[in-house]
Design brief:
Distance between the termini: 67 Å
Helix content: 40-55%
Largest sheet: 8 strands, mixed
Bound molecules: coenzyme A
Number of domains: 3
Mean pLDDT: 93
């Protein structure tokens, strides 16, 4: 291999004139770069600063890893056009968040309220293309007045592609996290609406199809922005938000936390030093109720089985009878689904959503069962508890990531199915010695049989023998109790063993090693979800 011998003459006229011309062009580039840093009129910037909020570029700086580069892309989009100026109203680029490479797209709310002009639309579509082609997760920092209304005709049709692309990436297991810092109205509401993970900032996010004035015009309803589309409403009622942040910095921390649990193409690193839980396993014995009718907070159990007792809870304010979230066990990522009460429709939907996310993210699942079943009653039937429960059962049935189930208390009714009971083929299923597996509790079972007996007698026009009914009921309670306890279940091979609750983490550590011997790969699709 030979080294090229350069023949340039640094003293030649052509060299000197090239050099000067290029120097001038580079100067122009620097000028334009500075122009592109424009973040809006001073009055809007001052307003942001006064309120203690962050500017678009500050948000990027804070979300990136300390030593991360930021390769800004398309900074000159819109230059020389009659739009909102060089760079439009988004700052986009590629950097590292929690060690993982991703695309960041930050709305500049201080230029025209972050409204989207034609160049910004094109820029957004191009960065989406880059994310798709290179399989990069996307973090959207949302604060936008939506389409540039005077120019809406040019924007409206192609604008829809932005929403299409979020869900197409999702289908290809490339997640999008949206952090809503401000306005995200009308079509813009579908940015969080289509995203895989949504964080909204308390008292700042405004996400609705129409703001209060338009609602008044359309339906005469008088309402305010906060109740119509604030972070609290979306986190507790609509479920559009998965996380509610106390302020902007908390929102950025939450996004970094989510990123740390995402599997990405090149950087699925496991922690080198596995942290032990900060609480001792002995305490599990005092936490789990020996009597399955007495509830206990499964978070207390989670705190004693996962690495460092660290748990990133998903949708903590929604469907609160089901706990969902990410953690690590022996360094491996795991999605945990734990019952904290009866399953209502919201909880079932949340479970179905989280199972889909774990499949998108190739993350194994741990089910901690303590479930008396789905909520019953007229109100719940009317709101479609069956179809909502069916969504969760659909998700569990078609999920292809390995699952481990531990029955920590009751395992009754279709709750057993939705929470990956034996028939749903978890890789391992262990029970605690206090656990009960049955179609329902013994007293309920006997009571139902008595009601049926009375009704049958009435229909036949005969008298119901109360004394005999009572005896039969007592017998049934005894039988059901016998057939639903942990020893009976284990005898029937309904589990892979009854375990000492204090040993849970040790079992899980071993199971995690076992399940990672084969590729952990989430489902490519699910059955049709009933809506
Ligand atoms: N299209 C074009 N320009 C817009 C715009 C839009 N959708 N929304 C706001 N602007 C402009 C304003 O004209 C103003 O321009 P200026 O700086 O030249 O004066 C600037 O953005 C700031 O707007 P302003 O209303 O003063 O700021 P704000 O911080 O008080 O409120 C919003 C921001 C986003 C809450 C408010 O502007 C708003 O509600 N906009 C309309 C949102 C909407 O309904 N969009 C429909 C999208 S399909």
């Amino acid at each position: 291999m030979s080294v090229i011998q350069s023949k340039i003459n640094r003293h030649s006229e052509s060299y000197r004139s090239n050099y000067e011309a290029m120097q001038q062009l580079v100067g122009e580039l620097e000028k334009k770069k500075t122009e592109a840093l424009f973040q809006g009129d001073e009055k809007y910037i001052a307003r942001v600063k006064k309120s203690g909020r962050l500017l678009a570029r500050e948000r990027i700086e804070l979300i990136l890893d300390e030593d991360s580069p930021f390769m800004e892309l398309l900074p000159f989009a819109g230059w020389g056009t009659d739009g909102f100026g060089t760079g439009g109203t988004i700052v986009v680029g590629i950097g590292f968040v929690s060690g993982k490479m991703c695309v960041i797209n930050s709305n500049v709310g201080t230029i025209k309220g972050g409204a989207v002009d034609y160049a910004t639309l094109q820029k957004g579509l191009r960065i989406g293309e880059i994310a798709l082609e290179n399989e990069l997760p996307v973090i959207n920092m949302v604060e936008s007045a939506g389409a540039n209304l005077p120019d809406q005709a040019k924007i409206f049709n192609y604008g829809g592609a932005n929403f299409r692309e979020i869900t197409r990436r999702s289908q290809k297991k490339i997640p999008t996290i949206s952090i809503v810092f401000g306005n995200s109205t009308a079509g813009g509401a579908y940015i969080p609406g289509m995203s895989d993970y949504v964080i909204m900032v308390k008292n700042e996010a405004k996400v609705f199809l129409a703001g209060p004035p338009l609602v008044k015009m359309a339906t005469n309803e008088v309402t305010d922005e906060e109740s119509l589309g604030g972070a609290k409403m979306h986190s507790t009622l609509s479920g559009v938000a998965d996380y509610m942040a106390e302020d902007e910095k908390h929102a950025l921390r939450l996004a970094r936390e989510i990123m740390s649990y995402l599997k990405t193409k090149d950087t699925d690193y496991e922690e080198d030093d596995v942290k032990e839980p900060v609480y001792v396993s002995e305490e599990i014995l005092g936490i789990v109720s020996a009597d399955v009718r007495v509830p206990f907070d499964q978070r207390e159990l989670i705190a004693r089985i996962v690495d460092g007792s660290e748990f990133s809870e998903f949708k903590p304010l929604y469907g609160s009878t089901l706990i969902t979230g990410y953690a690590r066990i022996n360094g491996y990522r795991i999605g945990i689904i734990a019952n904290n009460g009866v399953l209502f429709s919201e909880a079932a939907n949340k479970g179905a959503q989280f199972i889909q996310l774990c499949n998108q993210n190739d993350t194994p699942l741990l089910f901690l069962q303590n479930i008396t079943g789905f909520m019953v009653g007229r109100k719940y039937e009317e709101e479609g508890i069956i179809k909502h429960g069916a969504k969760m059962i659909n998700a569990v049935s078609n999920s292809t990531v390995p699952a481990i189930t531990i029955i920590t208390g009751a395992s009754y009714g279709a709750g057993n199915y939705a929470m990956c009971g034996r028939a749903y083929k978890p890789r391992f299923l262990f029970t605690y010695p206090n656990s009960k597996i049955a179609v329902m509790g013994p007293d309920q079972l006997a009571g139902v049989m008595q009601i049926i007996g009375r009704a049958a007698a009435e229909k036949a026009g005969t008298a119901y023998d109360e004394e005999q009914g009572k005896q039969v009921a007592q017998y049934m309670v005894k039988e059901a109790e016998k057939q639903s306890n942990a020893w009976y279940a284990s005898g029937q091979l309904w589990d892979d063993g009854v375990i000492d609750p204090r040993e849970t983490r040790n079992y899980l550590k071993m199971c995690m090693d076992v399940i990672h011997r084969t590729e952990v790969k989430g489902a490519e699709g699910f059955g049709v979800f009933r809506m």
